[in-house]
Amino acid sequence: MTSVAYPHISLDSANVPVLTGTRIKVVEIVLDHLAHGADAEEIQRQFSFLTLGQIHSALAYYYDHQEELEQDIAQRLRKVGEIQSRLGNSPVASRLKGIKNQP
Questions:
Q1: Where are the alpha helices (DSSP H) in the chain?
Q2: Any idea where the domains of the chain sit in the sequence?
Q3: Which residues of the chain fall short of a pLDDT of 70?
Q4: What pLDDT does residue 91 have?
């Protein structure tokens, strides 16, 4: 198997892929792409300090490591769900839901 280098990607101290020289996790770029259908140019508008090369490298890393990163995303979503369950609805969220459900 051929080894692929990602010049814009490195692993942080927790072994999480990040864009080299930043604290931006590859998964953050991927989530913008997956959740919002954002292409590289749209992502760059949100993260103007990143180059298109960095963004494309993050997306390439995702597609080459898709199963691993999707497991990471699923784990992050579970954590969010657990935290939300423990906290319950905030007063603001309850009011907004009440307003939304009114005729």
A1: 26-36, 40-46, 52-64, 66-87, 91-101
A2: 9-101
A3: 1-3, 99-103
A4: 76
> For the packed helices 52-64 and 26-36, what is the interaxial angle rounded to 10 degrees?
80
CA distances (Å), origin 28, targets 15, 62, 81, 94, 103: 15, 11, 18, 28, 38
Q: Please give the distance of CA 27 from its chain centroid, rounded to a whole number.
A: 4
pLDDT for res 86 = 78
Report which secondary-structure segment, H or E, holds 9.
strand 9-11
Element (H, E) at 10: strand 9-11
